[in-house]
UniProtKB/TrEMBL annotation:
Stated name of the protein: Cardiolipin synthase (CMP-forming)
Membrane topology classification: Multi-pass membrane protein
Gene3D superfamilies: 1.20.120.1760
Regions annotated as coiled coil: none
Reaction equations catalysed: a CDP-1,2-diacyl-sn-glycerol + a 1,2-diacyl-sn-glycero-3-phospho-(1'-sn-glycerol) = a cardiolipin + CMP + H(+)
Species per Swiss-Prot/TrEMBL record: Nipponia nippon
Tagged with keyword Transmembrane: yes
Amino acid sequence: YENPWTIPNILSMARMGLAPVLGYLIVEENFSVALGVFVLAGVTDLLDGFIARNWANQKSALGSALDPLADKILISVLYVSLTCANLIPVSLTSMIILRDVALIAAVFYVRYKTLSPPRTLSRYFNPCYATAQLKPTFISKVRVVTRCKRILVAASLAAPVFNYVDSIYLQTLWCITAFTTVTSAYSYYHYGRKTVQVINNK
């Protein structure tokens, strides 16, 4: 049993809240403001990681799942909206969304399997009951995939502002991001069981 209202968890939830705002701004083609909001979302990500690493009472099992979940929601919304704005190809966005949906589904499955009976909805969704902690694989530790996806998002948001939408460098980023996405998906599939540490299965 743990307190879910830590500063890192609140920052992660704030990042989730910024996702629809960013999506709306991009669809409305307000790219300058969207770029600023994206930077703000990045600051919340840096802060929650820094606080969780340096203050033991701010680290939680919920945070180990909430932080990557917030990232996946934010990135998914960004990719879909940027695809609607014709700044990222549909094929790349589909690949990223499928990977993230599979990972989120796996998190819900792990929660179900590690929750001791009775498995009621109130206990399942109660963030105070910590049952498992997620440990990153090697490729996610070096954060190659996250960095590639964020660099591509930032570059795509800035493209219409600084007039380089058809740049070959942007298209190169598409290929790099696609490769790292496939590699990380295989890494989670192959080493999936090693990424879950059960806290209490009594």
